[in-house]
Amino acid sequence: MKNFSFVSAVLISSLFLFQYQLLAQDKVEISYNAPEGRERIINELNDVKILEIISSDKKAHQKKFTLQIVRFQEGKPDTVFSNGSNCDMIHIPVPMANGDTATYVHDPCKSLLYLKNTGDFKITLAGKLQDSTFSMSINYPYGSTKIALASKPGYVLQNPYNDDKRKIETNTPTPVALYFGGYKQGNGTFYCLAKTAKAEEMFQKFQVEDYYVIYLNIKD
């Protein structure tokens, strides 16, 4: 009976420790930077949208900052972009002048990794509306990607929260930016109301029929 009690106690302790480890996820601090003053005015005149997401948190070193862009149409999500889902190394044979073959090794996720010698890890989202397309560039410290999003005049790129600095859980997709046309009421268009609702619920709460949510997942 004593042995059984001891084993039971060990199992219960192990289960508690496992549950605690699941709950005790790291939290990484991020902050936002958006153009102000004259730069903001110039960008508005040229219909250029810019938002920077920055982290200098040491707990994020050697973690990958992956992004996912989800388009919500009448509340229904559709992923239109993601990176970091496949980080397998790519080996490309390269013929040499002497007849030998060298191998070029490419790491598709290297630019997503927060290296210790990087300083601040900055992701810059920037784009310009051309006709009905938002030509967007996603810039990391060591690489960039261009994508095209269906858009309309009046769309903004903004922080979805009321604060410019916050801590987010690792290994959890978290909304970090919105690209949308605001909440229309009468002759006015309101953008700050989006910060009072969850990013996924803007159709239910404000009847925003078409918008994008950009998620950040800081992966181990």
Structure, described:
With 220 residues, the protein is α+β, with helices and mostly antiparallel strands. The protein is built from 3 helices and 15 strands. The strands form 4 sheets. The protein has a 6-stranded antiparallel sheet with strand order 9-8-7-2-1-11. It is globular, with a radius of gyration of 22 Å.
Low-confidence stretches: 4-24
* Largest pleated sheet: 6 strands, antiparallel
Structure class:
alpha+beta
- What is the CA–CA distance across the termini? 43 Å
**Estimated radius of gyration:** 22 Å
Order of helices and strands: HEHEEEEEEEEEEEEEHE
Q: Count of helices?
A: 3
Helix fraction, binned, reads: 10-25%
What is the averaged pLDDT score?
Answer: 87
Shape: globular
Strand content bin:
over 45%
How many strand segments?
A: 15
Q: Strand order across the biggest sheet?
A: 9-8-7-2-1-11
- The tally of structural domains comes to 1
